[in-house]
Amino acid sequence: MTDPTERPAALRPRDLVIPLGVGVALRLLFVVSFLGTDLAGDERAYSRLGGAWHEFGAYTGIWAPLYARAFAVVHALVGDAAPDAMRFLHLGLAVWIGAWTARIAAMFGGRRAGVAAAWVYALYLPLAGYCALLFSET
Fold first, then answer.
1. I need a labelling partner for 92 at 20 to 30 A (CA). Which of 33, 70, 74, 107 fits?
2. Cα–Cα distance between 3 and 33 in angstroms, integer?
3. What angle do CA 88, 95, 26 make, to 5 degrees?
4. What share of the chain is helix, strand, coil (3-state, %, to 5)?
5. How far apart are CA 107 and CA 124, in angstroms?
6. Helices (H), 35-81
7. Can you tell me the distance from the alpha carbon of 7 to that of 111, in angstroms, rounded to the nearest whole number?
8. Of 117 and 6, the one with more pLDDT
9. Residues 74-85: pLDDT tens digits?
10. Which residues of 44-73 are buried (b: 16+ CB within 10 A; e: fewer)?
């Protein structure tokens, strides 16, 4: 019989290499497919708000300003390529979020739960597609 006070095996960084790698590859397919496409709806609005914030130094939107500010900073760094650069920023954030999702699952359920959470996060298609869209919710 096992000791109930025994702690489960800790999640190791190498446990996440394959699931997060698969998740990055899947999201990269979405990002590459959207590179250079015309912006639509809120994407266009956020891009314009970020460009205006960079150019005029003021925010005039009705949405929460953090995403528009991120757009402004990226616009200052790469200019007109800001929408494509933001997609790659989303990709980087997606990896970070996936790693933390696995870490939190491992804290509650052990190593196997952390690895399972990493796989679910990596392969959940509705969430993966948002990586390529320029919405503040992504």
1. 107
2. 51
3. 70
4. 75, 0, 25
5. 21
6. 42-56, 65-78
7. 10
8. 117
9. 999 999 899 999
10. ebbbebbbbbbeeeeeeeeeebebbebbbe
